[in-house]
Amino acid sequence: MSSRSKTIRIAVADSNQMACCLLSDALNKQPGLSVVASVVDDESLMRSAQALQPDIALISASLHGWPFLQKSGRPDTHSRALSCPWVLLLDQSEPSLVVAAFRSGAKGVFSRSQSDIVVLAKCIRRVVEGQIWVDNKQMLHLLEALNDNGSGELKPPEAVPKLTPREESVVRLVLQGMVNREIAEELHLSEHTIKNYLFKVFDKLGVSNRVELALYAVARLNLTEDRALSDVG
To answer: Considering only Cβ atoms within 10 Å of each terminal Cβ, which end of the chain, N or C, has fewer?
Structure first.
């Protein structure tokens, strides 16, 4: 019973049934991982996620019907309806898809051409633990998007807003993968107070979610010792 409770339940959504089967078989051979759904289109993925409540979803960039995977690379709100964290599987790192994935709520992007199944298993475990998975090349794509102020010019590196000591404490705990409730308990504050701190931090740094906050903190703030980003790459 104990080992079973630790098993990570995965929904796999790939481009075709053969790809799904191959990936599912490989993942099922990894310790502590179990594929509970294997689908080839977005509607089946949503139904499976709702019915089976997996711990994580792996979604191929070539999945049929996945709305945000357009030529424009623009994010959508469809993927945010998933009740579990998800990782985008890429055959090659495409900057527009990397950026769109994180803006659409992805907790990781994994390039299949650069890593093997053991590294993918590590990615899955890290994301389920609350961390963010991104390699160095993909992080550069994201930082370029974050630094662009809309005019095509990059913000100067010295223009880093000053956070208060309390705000820094909150950011450090976000980087450890803690949710608001856990941060509140750690700092002996209310969840409402933590939300207010995060709103202020988002506003100061010009980010819109926790993923962007983590990326910004690693790249621009001196808070790397507690970072939740993977060091792969």
So the answer is: N
In a domain, 231, yes or no: no
Range of 214's domain? 152-226
Buried b vs exposed e over 87-108: b needs ≥16 C-beta within 10 Å? bbbbeebbeebbbbbbbbbbbb
Taking the CA atoms of residue 85, residue 91, residue 95 and residue 101 in that order, the dihedral angle to the nearest 10 degrees is: -20
Is residue 122 domain-shared with residue 175, that is, in the same domain? no
Q: What is the pLDDT of residues 11-70, one digit of tens each?
A: 999 988 999 999 999 999 999 999 999 999 888 999 999 999 999 999 998 887 765 554
Question: Do the Cβ atoms of 56 and 86 come closer than 8 Å?
Answer: yes
Tokens representing 130 are: 């609350």
